[in-house]
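I hope you will forgive my troubling you with a question about protein structure. Could you please explain, in whatever detail you think fit, how the C-alpha cells follow from the sequence? Thank you for your consideration; the sequence and its C-alpha cells are set out here.
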Amino acid sequence: MSRCFGVLMHWLLGAYAICTATASAQGPLTVIDSGGKSLTLDKWSLTSGTRRIEGLPEKLGHEFLEFREEKSTDYHNGILTLVPIRALKQIDYDPEKKLAVVAVAAENRDVQLTGTTRFKGINFLAGNGVSKAGPTKFQGGAIPKGGVRSLRFAAFEPVPSPGKLGWLALASDKGEHALSNLGSLVRIGTGSRSFDHLFFKVNVKVVPAKIVSMRRVESEDKKSTVADFQVAWKAGGSHALTFHDVPPVADAQPTALVGLLGRVDVGYKVFPVHTLMSLRIASEPPGLQKRPECVD
C-alpha cells in the first residue's frame, strides 16, 4: 500500500511540476479592457480563436492563434495564418476601425499582422485567467461591447526561421505566397493534424518533392464545388487530379481536409482548396505550357 502511495505521489508531483513549468514558461498576461484599465493574469489560457495541431515540430508548439490577415479573400473560410501562441508579443483591437493587430516575435525581427474584426467569428479571441483579484474572462474581436483593447504577453519565443522558401502559392487574394515544408492540414474528429503529403482522389498520397507545379482547372459546370488541378511531375508529364476533401486517415473518426499547409516566417499558412489557384517550385517559371501531358 505504501509503495502504491509513493508511486501515486511521485506521479502527482511530476504532473504538478509539468503544469508549473508550463505556467511559468507562458509568463503573465496583461489584459487592457475597453476603458483602459489593465489587469495582470498570472495564470491564463485561450479558449477560442486558437487551433491545436498534432504532427508539427515540437519547436513551434502545438497551440496556434488562427488569424485572418487583410485581403485573405472574401470567403468566410479563407486563408489562415497560424501563429504559435508562444511567439505572441501583443494583440491590439481597434473597435472604431474594426481591426486587430498582432505583434509576432520571429527570428531576428518582429512581424506585425493586421486583420479585420468586421465579421462574427473572424479574428475573435477569448480566454480566462486568474489575477490577484480572482478569476476573470476576456474577449477580443467582433463583439457588441466589453471587448479588450489589448493583450500583452510577458514571455515569448521567436518563431524559428522556416528555412528556404522553395514553393510559391498563388491564391485568390491575388498574392503569391512563399512557403516551405509543404503539406496538408486535416481535421480529425474535434482535433487537427498535419501531414507531409497531399491528398488526392482516389486515395492518392503525393509527396510534394515529386511535384514541379500545379494549376487550377476550372470546371465547365459553374455549380461544381470540386477543384481539379493539373499536376506536373519532376519525372515529366502531368495529370489532372482532384483534392480529397475527406482524407482516409482515421478509421473511427470523421475527417475533412482543412487545406494546404506551408511554413512562413510567423508560423504557418493554410490555404483551403477553393482559395488556391496555382503552386510551383520557386525556381520554376509560371505555367505548365512546356510540360508534356500524360494520356490516361
Q: What stands out?
A: The two ends are 70 Å apart (CA to CA).
